[in-house]
């Protein structure tokens, strides 16, 4: 069954995971592009975590204890981390971008092998209801992709 879901998210309170918005860096379309152009084979990954009710504070704590350092393998590729406020609740969404599928594969492999990431995953596993990963190849439609050059 197809369905449309609407919601509103706000920044996850982990500044290191929000390089385009945290600490007064708020990105707005009128400030111009912040990421590489959409030419070529760019890949955007949306990694979503649905948590048990009340799980967001523990997720944030796990990010600060293990996740942020482990996510150094994604440095320069993090778009942001968000938590749901309306719509489906108790959701965390992480966004990254990559030059191409090969770069994504290499970075995700390095992340998966990282002991800190493994500790993070072990810590959040009891909080999880569901997890998904969506890979997208954005197209240069200027009005719809102002974050990119």
CATH topology of the domain at 37-136: Alpha-Beta Plaits
Distance between the termini: 36 Å
Mean pLDDT: 87
Enumerate how many helices there are, as a single number: 3
Description:
The protein is of the alpha+beta class and 149 residues long. The chain has a domain at 37-136: Alpha-Beta Plaits (2-Layer Sandwich). It has three helices and five strands, in the order ββαββααβ. It has helices spanning 56-70, 101-113, 115-124; strands spanning 8-11, 43-51, 78-86, 91-98, 128-136. The protein has a five-stranded antiparallel sheet with strand order 1-3-4-2-5. Helix 1 packs antiparallel against helix 3 (115-124). 23% of the residues are buried. The model has no long low-confidence stretch (mean pLDDT 87).
Short description:
With 149 residues, the protein is of the alpha+beta class.
């Amino acid at each position: 069954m197809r369905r449309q879901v609407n919601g509103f998210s706000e920044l996850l309170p982990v500044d290191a995971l929000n390089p385009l918005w945290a600490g007064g860096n708020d990105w707005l379309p009128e400030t111009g592009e912040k990421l590489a152009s959409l030419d070529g084979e760019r890949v955007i990954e949306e990694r979503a975590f649905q948590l048990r009710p009340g799980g967001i504070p523990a997720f944030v704590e796990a990010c600060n204890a293990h996740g942020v350092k482990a996510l150094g393998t994604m440095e320069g590729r993090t778009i942001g981390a968000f938590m749901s406020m309306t719509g489906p609740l108790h959701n965390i969404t992480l966004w990254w971008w990559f030059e191409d599928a090969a770069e994504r594969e290499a970075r995700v492999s390095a992340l998966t092998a990282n002991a800190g990431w493994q500790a993070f995953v072990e810590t959040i596993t009891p909080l999880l209801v569901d997890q998904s990963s969506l890979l997208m190849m954005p197209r240069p439609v200027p009005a719809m992709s102002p974050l990119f050059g």
